[in-house]
Write a structure and sequence with these properties.
The chain has about 400 residues and is of the alpha+beta class. The chain is built from 9 helices and 24 strands. Helices cover about 25% and strands about 35% of the residues.
């Protein structure tokens, strides 16, 4: 479906947090896709939207995506939303937004020139209040049971049914929660290049995701699987040792390479022959609370490939299933015995031109009217040690729970 070119109005730099609080904090359906506090590169986007059951972001031609000459930024209108692990989607139609170019320190009002005048009036925000203490979160399973499930995963791997399984669980905090202060706390404690606040109806996603799932630009797709985690240390020498241990650990490297191979296979279904390749392999990326082992796989999309075709070929992400994917998903469904929902899904934007940028829903809080949930998990291989895997789950859940004012249960 053709779409008209949006208008762009440049504005002097305004702090994204100030802009969102001033313009969109009270909107029923709103989003803030955040490059992180103090970001020196990348883009942030924010605005409000509407649920439109007649719009079809999945029908966009991803193989032909690309900005028109002179248009600032890769996202110039389209949809913002999410897809759950089980495949349900919710997308806001976005006709007007603010785009923040962190490299040039410029802001653009896209689609609605009035936004330019309004954002310029944004006052400096007050500091966010500390989280009200909510005690210890409840866990879907305890650490002992999770350790038993790890052994069950290893049994299936030994039997040849899979060679990696991403086993997850969930922590919950009851009661009503104001999601926006939770996001403001989380982005300070755990700045990430693909963080986000997306509110659609009565569900709000608060995320400090470090994992970019799918980036589509100029007809090329990139995916950035993360497998392998170590905690940070306040001691610089110890911290560097932890990063080096992650970089050289045979189990972690094998786990990452398994998912790289899986993603190569997924992308080969929708990419031109001989164009799927590995651009980065086994690189350590460092975040406030963890070191992560990251790779990057890319390919050139076949002509006529839609965003929906790409999602069908790659979803759910292999980093959240294990391999082989179909077998892993069946095994995990039997072991976890509960839906993952938004956790382990993806969120972000899909442009009118077929470009897209979607992040994994990890290191996140899903806020519902009566509770908030934090999912966490890890990849299990034959070499996995139960105690280490249990500890990794606690490391991943700690920062999102702290933003809620809750603590990880004992044993994690």
């Amino acid at each position: 479906m053709p779409h008209s070119a949006p208008s762009f109005t440049p504005v002097e730099w305004v702090d994204p947090e100030a802009a969102f609080l001033h313009l969109f904090a009270d909107a029923r359906d709103a989003f803030w896709l955040d490059a992180g506090t103090g970001a020196a590169t990348g883009w942030s986007w924010m605005g409000a939207g509407r649920l439109d059951p007649c719009s079809r972001p999945a029908n966009r031609d991803a193989a032909a995506s690309g900005p028109a000459p002179g248009e600032p930024g890769p996202f110039r209108g389209g949809w913002v939303g999410w897809r759950t692990y089980e495949g349900e989607s919710a997308w806001l139609r976005v006709d007007a937004l603010l785009a923040f170019d962190h490299a040039t320190r410029r802001v653009y009002a896209v689609g609605d020139p009035l936004l330019a005048a309004r954002v310029a009036e944004a006052p400096t925000p007050e500091e966010v209040d500390p989280a009200r203490r909510r005690g210890t979160a409840s866990a879907r399973v305890g650490p002992d049971r999770y350790a038993e499930l790890i052994e069950a995963c290893r049994d299936r791997i030994r039997d040849g049914d899979a060679y990696q399984l991403c086993l997850t669980t969930r922590f919950s905090v009851p009661g009503a929660v104001d999601a926006l202060p939770v996001f403001r706390r989380l982005r300070r404690a755990s700045p990430a290049h693909h963080a986000g606040f997306v509110r659609i109806g009565e569900v709000t996603l608060v995320s400090a995701s470090p994992e970019r799932f799918l980036e589509v630009r100029g007809g090329t797709v990139h995916t950035h699987p993360i497998k392998g985690t170590r905690p940070r240390s306040d001691d610089p020498a110890r911290d560097e040792a932890l990063a080096e241990d992650l970089r050289t650990d045979a189990k972690e490297r094998a786990e990452n390479v398994m998912i790289v191979d899986l993603m190569r296979n997924d992308l080969s279904r929708v990419c031109e022959p001989s164009t799927v390749g590995v651009e980065r392999l086994l690189e350590v990326e460092t975040y406030p609370h963890v070191h992560q082992l990251v790779s990057e796989v890319s390919g050139r999309l076949l002509p006529g490939t839609t965003v929906g075709d790409l999602l069908d070929a790659t979803f759910p992400a292999g980093s959240m299933t294990g391999a082989p994917k179909e077998s892993a998903m069946q095994i995990l469904a039997g072991l976890e015995r509960a839906p993952r929902g938004l956790y382990a899904g993806a969120f972000g934007w899909i442009g009118d031109d077929g470009a897209a940028d979607l992040a994994m829903v990890i290191r996140s809080v899903v806020v519902l009217p009566d509770a908030a949930h934090v999912g966490a998990g890890g990849g299990i291989t034959w070499r996995s040690v139960a105690a280490s895997e249990v500890a990794e789950v606690g490391i991943k859940a700690r920062a999102p729970l702290a933003a809620l004012g809750a603590e990880v249960p004992p044993g994690w």
